[in-house]
Amino acid sequence: MSIRSQLLKGILEGCILSVIEKEPVYGYELSKKLQSSGLQDVSEGTIYPVLLRLQKNKLIRGEMQPSDSGPNRKYYYLTEDGHSVLSDISKEWEQIVSPVTTLLIRGNHDD
Question: What Rg, from alpha-carbon coordinates, does the chain have?
Fold first, then answer.
């Protein structure tokens, strides 16, 4: 597993919850939104196990809805617990990202 994959695995749930918080999405649409935000290596095959885990943990709920172009689609919505967990993830991320960025930049300049 690449370094990028390992780092992404740790934060992917938060990214997915963040996209769903903005608007309900179905799996393929979620994948495209993540890719368009710069996470090109996040495929549908990567996100569906995460969606199942988030749903099992009651952080999101799925709802089948008709589609204009084909079969019904399962749209995902954040639950109250999902909002709370996303808030916690955001706070933790803020506490981690700044010191890590500082360390990595300082590390690069000390060489």
Answer: 16
Ramachandran category for residue 76: left, alpha or beta (phi over 0 → left; psi -120 to 50 → alpha): beta
Are 81 and 54 spatial neighbours (Cβ–Cβ below 8 Å)?
A: no
DSSP 108: H
For 58-92, the pLDDT digits (tens) are: 999 999 999 888 899 999 999 999 999 999 999 99
Tracing tokens 């749209």 back to the chain, one arrives at: 75
Mention every residue, 6+ apart, whose C-beta is less than 8 A from residue 55: 61, 62, 76
The torsion of the CA quartet 7, 85, 90, 24, rounded to 10 degrees, works out to 90
Of 28, 15, 98, the C-alpha closest to 70 is: 28
